[in-house]
Structures are given as C-alpha cells and as structure tokens.
Amino acid sequence: MSDAVLSETVLEISGLEFQWSKQSPVMHVDQLEVLAGERVFLKGASGSGKSTLLSLIGGVTTATTGRLAVLQKDLQSMSAKQRDRFRADHLGLIFQQFNLIPYLTALENVLLTGRFSKQRKISQKDAFTLLDELGIDSQLAEKQVFHLSIGQQQRVAAARVLAGKPQLIIADEPTSALDEETRDGYLDLLFHQCQSHGATLVFVSHDRTLASLFDREVNISDVVRWSNTSMNNEQGGAL
Ligand SMILES: Nc1ncnc2c1ncn2[C@@H]1O[C@H](COP(=O)(O)OP(=O)(O)OP(=O)(O)O)[C@@H](O)[C@H]1O
Fold it and tell me: Which of 1, 2, 159, 229 could form a disulfide with 233 if both were Cys (CB 3.0 to 4.6 A apart)?
C-alpha cells in the first residue's frame, strides 16, 4: 500500500517563503492543507500568485524557507532531479496549453506518460480504454492530434495526465479556451476520473461560476501574502 493511501493529507504547506529573484517581492504562504480525495477550487485576482503557488506544489520551483510536503514527502529537501522523478511518478499537471506532441497520435501521446515514469506505464489496451472514457474513440485515438478539435485535444491532454493514476492533479486554467458546453463536459469527465482513481484535485480558474462544483473554495488572498521582506527580517524589525 502506498504512503498516499495511508495518509490523509496530500498537501501540507507551512511558513513557506518564495521569491522569483532577489529583487522580487517575497511570497508568503503561512498555512495550506489539502486532504486526500478533495476537489479544491483556487481563485484569486490576476497576479495574486496562483500559478506561482502551483509551480511550488508541482516542484517546478522551490521556496527559500518553510515546509511543503506532497504525499508526506518534503519537496524542499529533494534535489531538482528527485523532484522531477517525484512529479513524473505522482503528479498530474494540466495547463491551458495542452503540451501534446502534434505529429504523434492521441494514443502515442497518452503512452508518453509511461516513458517518464515506469510506475505509470500503462498498456496500449488501457490507454485506449482511458481515451474512450474521456470521449476519444479508437478511431480518433489513432489520429495525429493536430487533426483533432481543441475540445478533443483537451481530453487527450487530460488522458495523458491521468494515465497511471497520479495521486494529485494540479490544473491551471484548463478550461479557459473551451466553450461552456465543452467545458462542462470536460469537468464532468475530469471529476469522474479523479473520483474513480481516488485522485485529489487542485484547480485554478478565473471562472467563479465553477466554484460550486468543488468541495472547497480557497481564496488565494487568504493563504498568500506578498511583502518586500522575508519573515526573518520582519521579525527582526519587530523586536
Ligand atoms: N517566471 C516568473 N519570473 C518572475 N516573476 C514572475 C514569474 N511568474 C510570475 N511572476 C510574478 O509573480 C507574481 C504572481 O504571478 P502569478 O503568475 O503566480 O499570478 P496568477 O495569480 O497566476 O496570475 P494570472 O491569473 O494572471 O495567471 C506576479 O507579480 C508575477 O509578475
């Protein structure tokens, strides 16, 4: 049984500080916790730090201070290589840009996930099934993705992310390019897949009408604040 199944907490952040550069403002995240199986909607104004927070959770960037644990593993203490491996094995990142390889078929794109992580390698048969569950039949699955519609490409991208059952899915504005009907269908499929795989979902969107579909809504301004100094300097100043 994996650590994720034993653990109730999938994401745990405390006292985190991050700066894009030495001249940039300091981003502080005092406390944030996400439990296994939760669907969390993260909202906030443009520039408030949603994508920055997701890149920290995904281990793409690292904080200077504090604790950030995903599936009970402290990303802060990992090397860049270990974080890349951890991301490939356990996380699913969905972006507005699909990052599909256009000249490969939908099926080949889905099978790519297993090239980066042995534990997420799935058979061709399972890849067809996953695509089919996301509304991409076997005929479409064998087409190069540049022949598919935007909505279909979005679903192939979701299938690639869901392949091999990642425990935490991080989605950054994945529906902003979709019309209302395609968006609702896509969300239904994503929720269904997360539920049947027991995955946790952290989803960022500007579209507040989506919030009611989630278990919990988190306003970024309640968890993130920006300042010109790190906590150590602030405390030093207050003494
Ligand atoms: N790669 C980067 N290098 C330097 N600064 C960055 C970088 N990415 C974001 N920032 C800065 O970090 C702050 C937060 O940006 P971020 O992209 O996280 O906000 P956001 O809430 O996702 O915004 P949006 O809703 O517009 O996508 C902004 O001041 C932005 O200029």
Answer: 229
